[in-house]
Automatic annotation (TrEMBL):
<dbReference type="Pfam" id="PF00534">
    <property type="entry name" value="Glycos_transf_1"/>
</dbReference>
<comment type="function">
    <text>Plays a role in photosynthetic sucrose synthesis by catalyzing the rate-limiting step of sucrose biosynthesis from UDP-glucose and fructose- 6-phosphate. Involved in the regulation of carbon partitioning in the leaves of plants. May regulate the synthesis of sucrose and therefore play a major role as a limiting factor in the export of photoassimilates out of the leaf. Plays a role for sucrose availability that is essential for plant growth and fiber elongation.</text>
</comment>
<dbReference type="InterPro" id="IPR044161">
    <property type="entry name" value="SPS"/>
</dbReference>
<feature type="region of interest" description="Disordered">
    <location>
        <begin position="738"/>
        <end position="759"/>
    </location>
</feature>
<dbReference type="InterPro" id="IPR012819">
    <property type="entry name" value="SPS_pln"/>
</dbReference>
<feature type="domain" description="Glycosyl transferase family 1">
    <location>
        <begin position="469"/>
        <end position="643"/>
    </location>
</feature>
<dbReference type="Pfam" id="PF05116">
    <property type="entry name" value="S6PP"/>
</dbReference>
<dbReference type="InterPro" id="IPR023214">
    <property type="entry name" value="HAD_sf"/>
</dbReference>
<feature type="region of interest" description="Disordered">
    <location>
        <begin position="705"/>
        <end position="724"/>
    </location>
</feature>
<feature type="domain" description="Sucrose phosphatase-like">
    <location>
        <begin position="785"/>
        <end position="1006"/>
    </location>
</feature>
<comment type="subunit">
    <text>Homodimer or homotetramer.</text>
</comment>
<comment type="pathway">
    <text>Glycan biosynthesis; sucrose biosynthesis; sucrose from D-fructose 6-phosphate and UDP-alpha-D-glucose: step 1/2.</text>
</comment>
<feature type="region of interest" description="Disordered">
    <location>
        <begin position="670"/>
        <end position="692"/>
    </location>
</feature>
<keyword id="KW-0808">Transferase</keyword>
<dbReference type="InterPro" id="IPR001296">
    <property type="entry name" value="Glyco_trans_1"/>
</dbReference>
<feature type="compositionally biased region" description="Basic and acidic residues">
    <location>
        <begin position="105"/>
        <end position="115"/>
    </location>
</feature>
<dbReference type="InterPro" id="IPR035659">
    <property type="entry name" value="SPS_C"/>
</dbReference>
Amino acid sequence: MAGNDWINSYLEAILDVGPGLDDAKSSLLLRERGRFSPTRYFVEEVVSGFDETDLHRSWIRAQATRSPQERNTRLENMCWRIWNLARQKKQLEGEQAQRLKKRHLEREKGRREAVADMSEELSEGEKGDVSADVSGHGESHRGRLPRISSAETMEAWTSQQKEKKLYIVLISLHGLIRGENMELGRDSDTGGQVKYVVELARALGSMPGVYRVDLLTRQVSSPEVDCSYGEPTEMLPPRNLEGSISELGESSGAYIIRIPFGPKDKYVAKELLWPHLPEFVDGALTHVIQMSKVLGEQIGYGHPVWPAAIHGHYADAGDSAALLSGALNVPMLFTGHSLGRDKLEQLLRQGRLSKDEINSTYKIMRRIEAEEIALDASEIVITSTRQEIEEQWRLYDGFDPILERKLRARIRRNVSCYGRYMPRMSVIPPGMEFHHIVPLHEGDLDGVLEGNEEGKSPIIWGEIMRFFSNPRKPMILALARPDPKKNLTALVKAFGECRPLRELANLTLIMGNRDNIDEMSSTSASMLLSILKLIDKYDLYGQVAYPKHHKQNDVPEIYRLAAKTKGVFINPAFIEPFGLTLIEAAAYGLPMVATKNGGPVDIHRVLDNGLLVDPHDEKSIADALLKLVADKQLWAKCRANGLKNIHLFSWPEHCKTYLTKIANCKPRQPRWLRSDDEDDNSDSDSPSDSLRDIQDISLNLKFSLDGERGEGNENTDNPLDADERKEKLEKAFLSWSKGLSKQKSGSSDKNDQNSGAGKFPALRRRKHIYVIAVDSDSSSSLSDAVRKIFDAVEKERTEGSVGFVLATSFNFAEMRSFLASGGLNPTDFDAFICNSGGDLHYSSSHSDDNPFIVDLYYHSHIEYRWGGDGLRKSLVRWANSVIDKKGGTGEHLVVEDEDNTADYCYSFKIRKPGSVPPVKELRKLMRIHALRCHVIYCQNGSKINVVPVLASRCQALRYLHLRWGMDLSNVVVFVGESGDTDYEQLLGGVHKSVILKGVCNEASSLLHANRNYPLSDVVAFDSPNLIQTNDDWSSSDLHASLEKLQVL
């Protein structure tokens, strides 16, 4: 078996010494082998799928042992170790089969229930095969724009886009990112993704209709990396493109924007970035707000220009993009690059690490949850191949290809999906730069290594040609690292066993760089040794080249040499996720032979420049190579097809498809800033008049501004219907808030701080905002905490320089009851975040009857993908299924709290806290049903709040930053030792956090015991923005803590 020849050799050695051993000393394996072939069994059945690094080292030591008895003992021990590996492998295969079966059953059940909830019968189109109406690029042919096939069509498309001036935000957080001299391969975080996002940003910035592109990443000011990574801004100038491409539209260009977050003087691996992501989101939010205002002055006629889309790359950026797009209410795109569930499955199959060890090393569960969140929030998920969708994304709870097809069919028929949403999967192959590639012309192909050209030949040509006895023969080129997955041994075997192929062609293997095989990793060394043995076995000297070194800029010359000899490029990998080298080779005029598994299928469908083969069939590989090498007409046709179609993988083509997808997204932006909601030419009503309008309308509607749901619409005196009245109410609220804003210039600072007639809401005039988000076990302990916090800043509170926001899981009625029972005045707080972020209210001193104003625009801001009644029905069905099985009573443990359920928060009571499934199970169930929501267990496990997917208490704070300019760096959040299941979100970001020891310390075991990942994976407890009080803290202790945080 490829990569395991050393196992063959030591087992054969055991068999060879068998007759010379005394029977009493012979191993059990030798005595019982009979007609059994241990070599074949162990190599082909047992060891496959395992990393045998330790065994290989043991075998090396055994070989070096001179004593035959000791040597045989060691070899026997190794056989037993392999037998143990076999047992582990069977156990792992069984566990994997159980996981797959459980996932399949959950998926089938969820799909059936989702379909049952959708009232109409499925059409034949919905029942059909998933791939029936899907093209090779994963999209329906219907409505697809034509490909750019000439300069004229590109010009026509360009003219259509000239009027658009888009602002696009890309996010890629880990690794070292800069525009030039990228340090690709410096570490595992700085690889192909870095090059992809930089080139994507550069290409988008050159496209017509795109005004600005910002690539957001981490600012790294560390002595261990180049100082360029500490620059806050770097412009990405466009490449020197030829022809009409260089004249593409007006653009302010593309920029790398580096946001500082995490340790300021350290370069941090991606696995350790998770606790610092909220800090990035806050910094990115501030940047986007500022840039939107700047662009508004330039191209928006004074109105902010919000991003057309925010595109996250990899799981960490996907999680951040979800929060950022939710805070801004703009569309989100996501590209996974590599996926956590797929990696977890691979690591579990290897059997070297347990699931806990994998999670500890790779933070894999946090990564998977981030990818699920990205699925929840994304409008579009961009992949490179269809295989990525069908074999990797389908592993996730939030995506089901079959259910996605059913929902898509219903949307086409304009039929309700009952609150169910699935992101659109779009296959857009990565773009490439072709402007620097000059393929050889037909005339150049005739003179192979003529004497007058030899002096001009690149050095790498000589390094390769020195291996060949006849360098004029066509070259079969493979370019891959020495990895068993790349299947290079099968290629060498196919070449060695096909005599006609050996007579017609040479084989070149570019397998990375090496100085000494012994210094390579064990896997790479084993692979290379296997290839060298095969070369010797088939006596391929003079026919196979395997140079030790090459530079990155040598690769184009290697392609040119293969094309010059009329050769073929081959990728025989068992599975190839995409196959970028196939596109590179085609750009230089090389036909291809490639694996039929994965991305090459899509590439071949577009380029039509070669043959696909079964990588497990060596004869098939040899036949395909021979066919292309021997048939000159076929070779010329494949070459011509590749050169003709290669522009379909260019960056302009990639960006055109990309921008078309963005154009198909439903536009979203902050509603109160839309131009159609504003009328700058009309005189605004005075604040007091507008407030009276609000109160009059709300009374007539019986729509109480305290947020409670009305019993009905019995009022027959008002002729307006509900929607018209609500719209009028919203306009009155907007007029009031705008009127207050316009009056601020005529008020003195002193009057602003001491009267309610100043800025609205009051938090706009505060120097600092203190957010009380203590999830206390009782109202009395919460009241005590509030009183102590008030006492700690009594002086600043009296001066009016600090304001307070109460953020709880209470609904509005519970919140008002809490204020009354604690003797607190509503005007003690500037704002109230209720229902775990489902509602937002402001206090007002204009009316004693209704001292609360509900922010109606907040609802429109968070309603993205809110499932409405369809979600509620699914939640009720789940609640009815949760019964007390242990007690034997069959009592329902979860019941709907109809009295306290709000429009954007469905509430449920838990009768026996601790007896219901953990929150992660309910989140998983909702995702399987394609219902996007944020499930929160709160009030010490006695209540469940379900709010929109991008709503939370922390997101409400970002909304206040966006809506009213509340500086997040001047915000202090007070929390207990534990809290509701959204507790972790309150501990990160640019705001300060104070953990009150001894408060809400019982909730941890009930609500957080079944977490997917430890709290330390998502909270930076060593952050200078986070501080903990003593156990018996007092107001003076709290004052001292605030002084340490420099907020007093």
